[in-house]
Specification:
- The chain is an alpha/beta fold.
- The protein has 3 helices and 9 strands; from the N terminus they run ββββββαβαβαβ.
- A hairpin with a 3-residue loop joins strand 1 and strand 2.
- This is DRTGG domain-containing protein.
- It comes from marine sediment metagenome.
Length: 151
């Protein structure tokens, strides 16, 4: 039975492991967050902020961002999440987000990852610098929860 498994990153398959999986070779950097909405996406990264604590407002999202992964400090508005889905974006990377927005973030079909947690926390400087250096590059967002049995 054919089965499609998303790798969660761009790269080249260099080995097939019969009945188990594949080895994917890639280059890049890894930033791990603390929460995600269980989706995977990839696209060109757009850092939509000059500071690690800037709040993303709905008026900063427009059709020029369609198909991109947007990184910014904080999400405080449910409308931002809904617009992200309607464009559609391929992912959102936030430092933090208001906890009451969790149900909407889980509901939308756009990967959402929080780097720091809930509330109004700025992104740590190292993660912000790494994202800024990779602005415009193709990135992958794996917002799936880690499962000790599946990996």
């Amino acid at each position: 039975i054919p089965f499609q498994l998303k790798a969660g990153l761009s790269g080249n398959v260099v080995e097939i492991i019969s009945n188990r999986g594949a080895v994917v070779e890639t280059t890049g950097a890894l930033i791990q967050g603390v929460w995600g909405n269980d989706l995977i996406g990839s696209g060109n990264l757009v850092v939509r902020t000059d500071t690690p604590d800037e709040v993303l407002s709905a008026n900063k999202l427009d059709t020029s961002l369609r198909g991109t992964i947007v990184a910014v400090g904080t999400c405080e508005d449910e409308e931002v999440l809904k617009i992200a889905e309607s464009l559609p974006l391929r992912g959102l990377i936030f430092a933090s987000m208001r906890p009451d927005l969790i149900p909407t973030a889980v509901e939308i079909k756009v990967p959402v990852i929080l780097m720091e947690g809930y509330g109004n926390c700025p992104m740590n400087v190292d993660a912000f610098e790494l994202l800024t250096r990779n602005n415009g590059h193709t990135v992958s967002v794996n917002a799936q929860a880690w499962d000790r049995y599946r990996g």
